[in-house]
């Protein structure tokens, strides 16, 4: 009987993920999310009952220059440019960047690719869920405030005028701001402040109530944080330290 070489067993992508999760997943403590979730829900509720109508009344009397300025910058919350940029940069470096330079340069290229994947997933997935939620809730937009009030709902009407909660632009603003804040922790505060300002322009242009903006922005922030935690559990780009927050 002759010895025959047994071909090595091919490891599938799913198998690799399982190994990485087994290696990294048990090292990370749970994040304290319940308190922050309660705060987010409280802010949305307070805004809905006490500030939404007042804010829209003020917006209708705001200076024209402020309305024009908000209109110029509010489309930064559109996901198209973010997703295209992340995809182009990530694919370009993945296909070409890792083939050049030494080990340090290749590792840096892999890090950039993973960062682009992180941003793409955070913005794209949160946007899809937000768009579903706004159709599910069916809240009337501020343009219909005088006709139906600020608590009128028409679920699954497939009508733009009844897709106010949560704000999709604000979700994108929150997801991108938090993703960049995690990638660049030294700039965390200004990035989150800038992201919330961009989200607030949705109210300044009269497209959403403050509660829509707070809900969308909070959801985007939390989704990016969750995405980073999941990636850390597989040892991709992040590690998680106390109290469970992801770090590069």
Architecture overview:
This protein has 248 residues and is an all-alpha fold. The protein has one domain: Phosphatidic acid phosphatase type 2/haloperoxidase (Vanadium-containing Chloroperoxidase, domain 1). It has ten helices and two strands. The protein has helices at residues 13-24, 34-50, 52-59, 64-73, 79-95, 103-137, 145-148, 168-183, 188-204, 210-233, and strands spanning 239-241, 245-247. It has a two-stranded antiparallel sheet. A hairpin with a 3-residue loop joins strand 1 (239-241) and strand 2. Helix 5 runs antiparallel to helix 6 and helix 6 (103-137) packs antiparallel against helix 10.
Question: What is shown here, in short?
Answer:
Helix content is 65%, strand content 2%. The chain has 248 residues and is an all-alpha fold. α6 packs antiparallel against α10 (210-233).
């Amino acid at each position: 009987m002759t010895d025959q070489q047994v071909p090595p067993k091919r490891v599938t992508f799913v198998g690799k993920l399982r190994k990485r999760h087994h290696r990294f997943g048990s090292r990370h403590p749970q994040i304290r999310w319940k308190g922050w979730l309660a705060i987010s829900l409280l802010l949305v509720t307070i805004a809905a009952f006490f500030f939404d109508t007042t804010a829209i009344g003020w917006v209708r009397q705001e200076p024209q220059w402020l309305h024009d300025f908000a209109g110029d910058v509010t489309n930064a919350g559109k996901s198209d440019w973010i997703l295209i940029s992340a995809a182009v940069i990530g694919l370009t470096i993945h296909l070409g960047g890792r083939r050049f330079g030494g080990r340090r340069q290749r590792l840096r290229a892999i890090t950039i690719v993973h960062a682009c994947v992180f941003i793409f997933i955070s913005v794209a997935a949160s946007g899809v869920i937000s768009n579903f939620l706004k159709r599910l809730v069916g809240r009337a937009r501020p343009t219909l405030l005088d006709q139906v009030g600020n608590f009128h709902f028409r679920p699954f009407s497939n009508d733009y005028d009844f897709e106010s909660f949560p704000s999709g632009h604000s979700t994108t603003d929150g997801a991108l701001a938090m993703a960049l804040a995690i990638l660049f922790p030294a700039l965390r505060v200004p990035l989150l402040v800038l992201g919330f300002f961009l989200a607030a322009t949705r109210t300044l242009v009269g497209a959403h109530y403050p509660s829509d903006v707070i809900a969308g922005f909070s959801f985007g922030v939390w989704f990016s944080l969750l995405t980073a935690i999941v990636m850390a559990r597989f040892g991709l780009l992040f590690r998680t330290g106390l109290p469970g927050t992801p770090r590069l």
